[in-house]
Amino acid sequence: MHYRAVFISDLHLGTPGCQAEALIEFLKSHTSDYLYLVGDIIDGWQLRRKWYWPQAHNDVVQKLLRRARKGCHVVYIPGNHDEFARGFVEHHFGGIEVSQEAVHTLKDGRKLWLIHGDYFDAVVQYAKWLAYLGDNLYELALRLNRHFNRVRARMGLPYWSLSAFLKSKVKKALNFVADFENAVAHEAQKRGYQGVVCGHIHRAEIRMINGILYCNDGDWVESRSALVEHQDGTLELIYWDQVLDFLPIVQPAMQVPDRAAAPVAAVAPVVASVASEVA
Ligand SMILES: [Mn+2]
Q1: Domains of the chain and CATH, by start
Q2: How far is the CA of 159 from the centre of ligand 1 (A)?
Q3: 80 CA distance to ligand 1 centroid (A)?
């Protein structure tokens, strides 16, 4: 299928989480006149910590370069994980244009503002912390919570609920997604655009927010999603071969006999899914 435009972001090449093989398959069957890389394409943060660069990740880069060579207009908008590329803004890389932000005009004339979106994320550090907790650390946190409360009890202090703490964090994380979407849409409107395309929060979406078309193209770490503009100008989110079991289920936590921990177990899948969404 050949599209007018394809928008992808948050590939996180250079991390084991990147679904490079699926992305290559997607790119093969989704050619376009315009290809926008909306940030966090290469994960410089992770690569600095630990070098991880399998062949498939190289193939993705080669595929993007080849696409540019073959006449596709490829624009690369660096994100926060690939902020090193912001030093190359207004330059070309083998035909790929690097830009801080971009504008795409839809077939019907509407102008979309293209940004990664991290500028609107005042709480990157917090979200990262939550993402770590969503993993195996969750179990450790439960164990620590029990020890912590034994110590507190010995000191005559009341029980401190990890459950209540996590619930408030989850609520804040959900607020964060809505706040992010509203802030991005509001700024697009202020700048005179009819819509906006961003990434960053790994949450694919197409919806109207106060008369502004808000689009998020998702990610290639979990949801394998892309935004496309068909030849007739309609926009669509494409989920590539999506598997339904992508949410990490925290099974062992369900079997904790400690009654105090039971509510935590109930909220665990939510924490895990929210954590992955705001990463
Ligand atoms: Mn990002």
Answers
A1: 2-118+192-239 (3.60.21.10), 124-169+247-278 (no CATH)
A2: 37
A3: 5
